[in-house]
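One record is kept unedited as follows:
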Amino acid sequence: MEENERNTENLEAKPKPVGRRMRNWRFDYLKGICCIVVILSHCPAPGMLGDAIIYGCKFAVPIFFMITGYYTDSKNNEWIFHKVKQLLIKLIIAELLYGVWSLFVHIVIDNKDFGSFISGLSILNHPIKVFFCGTLFNGVFWYFYGIIWSYLLIVLLRKAKVIYSSAFCIAAVAVLLTVHIVGRFILQNMIDYSQYAYLTRNGLLFGFPLVLTGMLFSRYEKTIREKVSCGKNIVLLFLGGAVLIAEYIFSRQYLDFHYSSFIISCAMFMFAFTYKKDGIIFKKPLSFMGQNLSLWIYLDHMFVDQFLKIVAERLSLADNVIYGYFHTLLVIIMSIVMAYIAYIIKKHQYEKKNRK
C-alpha cells in the first residue's frame, strides 16, 4: 500500500516523480475506492447486500498489491529494504496496540482472566503460521506480512536474475494463482477450511503473484496505453463480472479470490492507464484518501468496528437490522477521521523536523 505522506500539495498540481515514474493520481483515486471496499468487506452490511459485496468486490486488496508491484519494478533493492523496514516498524507498533486493545476487551469487556489470554495467543499455538502468514492480534494484518514477503521474494529472484524475464513472471502468476484458487476449492470441500485460510491468504500464493502482475503492467504500460482504450477496458470489466456470475452459478462457493477477481482487478487497475480525462466524480477526496490515508485506514478500521460493536451491544442495538447498515457507515466515517488525525500528526512531526 504505497503512501506518500510528505506530499501535501494541491492534488490538482502536476504529478510528482516516484522513482523513475510520475505519480498518477488515478492510482490514488483507485486506492481511495479500495479503502472503502475493504471496510465494506470486513464490516459488511446485513442481508444480501453485504453478502454480495463480500462475494463480488474482491478487487480492493489485489489492487493494493498490484500498485505495490507497479512502483517496485523501477526501484532498487536498497529502496525495497528501506520499505520493508518502514513496514515492519508500523506493523510492530500496530500489533502492539491491537494487543493492548485485545487484552482490554478480554479482561474488562469479556470478564476473562489473563492466563486464558496468554494461552490463546497465536504466536504460542501457531508460531510458523504467524511468522509466514500473520498475524498476532488482527487477522487483516496478513496483508502487511504478504507485502513484506513479496518484497523479499523480489530481492531473492533479482539475485537469481529470473524476475527480469516477463515470461517467468507470467508463468509464475498463472501457476501461483491457479494453485491458490484450485487448491482452496479442493481443500474447502475436504476439510473445515475456516481454520486453514492462511494456506492461501499469504504472501506466496496471494500477494506475490499480484505484485508480479503490477510489475508486468509497469513494463508494458506504454503498450497498454497505445493498444487498450477505456472502452475496451470497460468490456474487460464486464467480462470479469460475467465470469463472476458463472463461477457463482456453477460452484456457489465463496473463495477469497476467484479467476473473476483477477480479471476485475486487472480491469480496475488499468483504469489508471486508459482513463484519459483529468476529472472524475469525487476526484479530490478519494485521491487524497488514497494518497495520504490508505495505510492508516487499513490499520484502524477493525478497531473502529470492534469498538462500535461493543457500544452497540451495551445499547442493545447489535441485532437491529437498521443499525446494521448504520454501523457500516459509522465504521467508514470514523476510520477516515482517525486516519486523517494520524496523517495530520505525522505531517506536523515532519514539518517540525524540517524546521530544525
Q: What stands out?
A: The radius of gyration is 21 Å. The chain has one domain: 23-290. The chain has a mean pLDDT of 89. Residues 23-290 form one domain.
